[in-house]
Design brief:
alpha+beta, Aminoglycoside 3'-phosphotransferase, Chain: A, domain 2, 9 strands, about 15% strand, globular, kinase, AGP_Transferase
């Protein structure tokens, strides 16, 4: 199912064609679907590679950004992150940049997973502490001359007020979609509480931008890798902490305890969590049920804390 206007359809036949044309050394490797997100469609290539194809030409900018910056960030981070190994070029067969990365073993942490499943986490507090450690490391990396401009400028690193128009529209839409099941008025109060504060005083840092559970990989029950840096940007760190409302309460508590942050920072982070949840439910309601389910879990956590 397509999620966006002007979406490019990608299947195994097309991927084989692109591999043959641009990197024939991999053209005969085993190939299979490896999932799809809001930005990319992915295919596992052999045992060691992952090919990622943007859903639209516009979204290929995120892959170019990852290819440029991830090799520079990786040495400063304690967890594995994607390593680009090939830059696919636009062609008549596929009009956008695409990329091949090294495969990273692991599974998404799943609060509903049974003890025998790959995504099972026995120590959610440990995962929350691991994630906090990663965020600290990323935010401490030198900017290396980069600044909040062009592809490294994204709304979540900016100010809340500039987003009020579309967030308010999304909340109004949520009243129609989930208003009988969730207290959307309380969500709006959280959003307004963030808007009432002064802009973030914190200096700009590197931001992953989208640290939801589907972008985390666990191995043996502990956080092992962070993936999908398509939202990589430079900005204020407040929005990065919004990830806590995607996690079960033991992980949230451990993350909170790992940071000595003031109440205004958490209030802004909570407002960002509302923005992401409301816009996700509104935009993807009819097209991406799995993503809507993630956003609804975030809403449940926001309303329970």
């Amino acid at each position: 199912m397509t999620l966006h206007q002007d979406e490019i359809t990608v299947d195994e036949t097309l991927v084989r064609r692109l591999l043959t044309q641009q990197c024939p050394q991999w053209a005969d490797l085993p190939l299979g679907p490896a999932g799809a997100g809001t930005e990319n469609t992915m295919f596992r290539l052999g045992e060691d590679l992952l090919a990622r194809f943007p859903r639209t030409v516009e979204k290929s900018a995120s892959l170019r950004k990852e290819r440029e910056w991830l090799p520079r960030l990786a040495p400063s981070l304690g967890l594995r992150i994607p390593a680009p190994v090939f830059a696919g070029a636009p062609s008549p067969a596929f009009p956008a940049d695409w990329s091949v990365f090294g495969w990273i073993d692991g599974a998404e942490p799943d609060a509903a997973a049974a003890a025998t499943e790959a995504g099972f986490v026995s120590d959610w507090a440990g995962l929350g502490a691991d994630l906090a450690r990663f965020v600290r490391e990323l935010h401490a990396v030198d900017l290396m001359g980069a600044n909040r401009a062009g592809e490294l400028s994204w709304y979540r690193g900016g100010d809340l007020r500039s987003c009020d128009g579309w967030v308010s529209e999304s909340l109004a839409r949520c009243r129609e979609l989930i208003g009988l099941e969730a207290d959307v008025a309380a969500l709006e109060e959280h959003w307004r509480a963030g808007l009432a504060l002064a802009d973030s005083p914190h200096p700009h840092v590197w931001l992953h931008g989208d640290l939801k559970p589907t972008n985390l990989l666990v191995e043996a029950g502990r956080l092992h890798a962070v993936i999908d840096f398509g939202a990589l940007s430079i900005g204020h760190p407040d929005a990065e902490h919004a990830t806590v409302w995607d996690l079960p309460s033991p992980a949230r508590d451990a993350y909170w305890n790992a940071f000595d942050l003031d109440e205004p920072t958490w209030t802004r982070a909570r407002a960002w969590a509302v923005a992401v949840a409301a816009s996700g439910i509104s935009y993807y309601w009819h097209t991406f049920p799995a993503f809507v389910a993630e956003c609804r879990t975030r809403v449940e956590h926001l309303l329970s804390t």
